[in-house]
Amino acid sequence: MTTPSATVTWTGANARRMERQGLTDPLAGPPSAVVESMPAAHAQVLSAAELSVGLRSRELTRADVRKALWTDRTLIKTFGPRGTVHLVSAAELPLWTGALSALPAGRATQPEGVRMTPEQTEEVLAAIADALTGTELTVDELTEAVVARAGAWAGEPVMPAFQTLWPRWRQVTHLASHRGVLCFGPDRGRRVTYTRPDVTPLDGPPALAALAGRYLHAYGPATPQNFAKWLAAPGRWASDLFAGLAADGVIEEVRYEDGSPAWVVAGDTAFPSQPVRGVRLLPYFDAFVIASQPRERLFPGAAYTRALAGGQAGNFPVLLVDGTVAGVWHQRRSGRRIAVTVEPLSPLTGGQLRELERQVARVGEVMEGKPELTVGQVTVGGHA
User: Fold this and answer.
1) What is the largest CA-CA distance in the chain?
2) Looking at residues 182-187, what average pLDDT do you find?
3) Other CB atoms closer than 10 Å to residue 163's CB: what's the count?
4) Radius of gyration, alpha carbons of the chain
5) Could you report the per-residue pLDDT of 288-302, keeping only the tens digit for each?
6) What does the alpha-carbon distance between residue 145 and residue 127 come to, in Å, rounded to a whole number?
7) Residue pair 354/360 in contact by the 8 Å Cβ criterion
8) Which of 183, 181, 182, 186 is nearest to 69 (CA)?
9) In Å, how far are 58, 333, 360 from 372, measured between CA atoms?
């Protein structure tokens, strides 16, 4: 049985998490460096990812994020933790693909007659890799290419999705991304495209160790269960992984004030002595809101009811006051005008209101628009 090396307060842990990803003092550097601090930005709604990056910096705008994605290719849009769309640093793509492709396979989600055999899966992955090399294809074009290489069975419309049926091969889209043979290309009008990134995945065990370290640097102290939830992976697998990393001296155990154990990167036991002060806005599905645990501490009191959707974080853009969720907000764009409505759960002081006005001004800078602030009730769910 290990002896905890330090006792940690939640306020100290929360302050360090916010500090490390530019939520107390803005980060310097390009979009890729900001994304690495998270260490991935949720991008199902790309404008939310642009805002996540911009609000962690002093000068970056959505144009800078788009240039990093589609021109410089220092950011990659791909399927990341939990199989959801994220932006990751191109420099860290070997780590991500190595780690995600090494996760234990979950239960089959497709019924008999729809799911593919292991042999069919490998055949489709090879077809995707070949089809996407050196080009960008829409879903329909990729379907034609996969069918041409693997056979008609791969294109059979058997997967129920959004009131239609998708071709059979699409059940391995996330796996293709995790294997490093598929990522997003620039949209072609309203149509998504895919391409093949230039990446060689790291070997699984060192990649998983590195990803656990990146996660703990950003969100530690954390438990194996926290890590498993972040990845949508089995809890017992994560416990075994942490036990092995601890035995190898890669991570070490600390204790929260209530005695509960958690883990940090070995030697990374310094925490701020002062709690976070100030006002921040975070967009829809911001990485900090998703990954920070325990969630009931980040969403205290009424915030747990108002700012979560059945306990799920991210469905509402949030207002942070002194490091915890203290309201929700919404934005609506019309041309260059951005109408921002912020609903605090308790009255803001004059100083806090001025900070909020500065945050809204920064939203306008990031999104290249003219913001107008209203403090009042948010009556719609909104995407940042």
Assistant:
1) 66
2) 97
3) 5
4) 22
5) 999 999 999 999 999
6) 8
7) no
8) 186
9) 20, 10, 8
Tokens 């240039």 locate to: 67
Q: What is the dihedral of CA 52, 56, 60, 64, to 10 degrees?
A: -40
Tokens of 51: 């805002």
Query: Which parts of the chain are beta strand (E)?
Result: 7-8, 41-42, 75-79, 85-89, 137-138, 157-161, 164-167, 183-188, 191-195, 251-256, 261-265, 279-282, 318-321, 324-334, 337-344, 370-375
> Tokens representing 151?
């056979």
Q: What is the pTM of this model?
A: 0.94
In order, the DSSP letters of 5-70 are S-EE-HHHHHHHHHHHTTSSSPBPS-HHHHHHTSS-EE-SSHHHHHHHHHTTBSS--HHHHHHHHH
* CA atoms within 13 A of residue 289's CA, in its CB half-sphere: 32
Residue 162, token pair as written in the block: 């959004």
Which residues, listed in sequence order, are joined to residue 325 by a DSSP beta bridge? 320
> Which one, of 65, 37, 36, lies nearest residue 49 by Cα?
65
Residue 14 is which amino acid?
N
Over the range 223-249, which residues count as b (16 or more CB within 10 Å of their CB) and which as e?
bbebbbbbbebeeebbeebbeebeeee
The letter for the amino acid at 295 is R
Provide the CA 89 distance to its chain's centre, in angstroms: 12
Residue 117 tokens read as: 């055999």
Average pLDDT of the segment spanning 361-381: 94
